[in-house]
Design goal:
By secondary structure, the protein is an alpha+beta fold. 16% of the residues lie in helices and 49% in strands. The protein contains two helices and eight strands, in the order H-H-E-E-E-E-E-E-E-E.
Length: 136
């Protein structure tokens, strides 16, 4: 009896993996650099907002992605409050997975400031505080 359950479970798992197209597992990414000026300083902060779509067939939608950001200084604490919003439009009635990763280096490398998963046509938003050396 236990043997039958194990075999049935293995077949079920195998069916799921075979039925999932390889293309769906691939992510296509776009990685613009965002540059902020630190208040009362010549220092600039560069971060990367990696936008992604799941599936190579949606890669073209990245060209139509809307990305905006704002930064507000908190001079007393040597910090900048940063908010980033991204929206990757859908393709007709199809909906697909999207992602926004904000990091200190390209393509999600370095320090990760935030990650948000979403769906096409819906806004993704991240907020975080970036601390800097006020003596620079």
């Amino acid at each position: 009896m236990i043997r039958r359950l194990i075999v049935a479970g293995a077949i079920g798992i195998l069916t799921v993996f075979v039925a999932t197209p390889v293309e769906a597992a691939e992510w296509c990414l776009h990685d613009p650099a965002l540059v902020f000026k630190v208040p009362d300083s010549k220092q600039r902060i560069t971060i990367y907002a990696t936008e992604g779509v799941q599936g190579t067939r949606y890669e073209g939608r990245l060209k139509h992605a809307k990305l905006d950001f704002d930064a507000k200084a908190d001079k007393r604490h040597g910090a900048v409050h940063i908010r980033i919003r991204a929206n990757i439009p859908g393709q007709g009635r199809e909906s697909f997975a999207t992602v926004l990763v904000v990091s200190s280096e390209p393509y999600g490398a370095g320090t990760i400031y935030g990650v948000v998963m979403g769906r096409s046509g819906h806004r993704m938003e991240l907020s975080f505080e970036f601390h800097y050396d006020r003596g620079s």
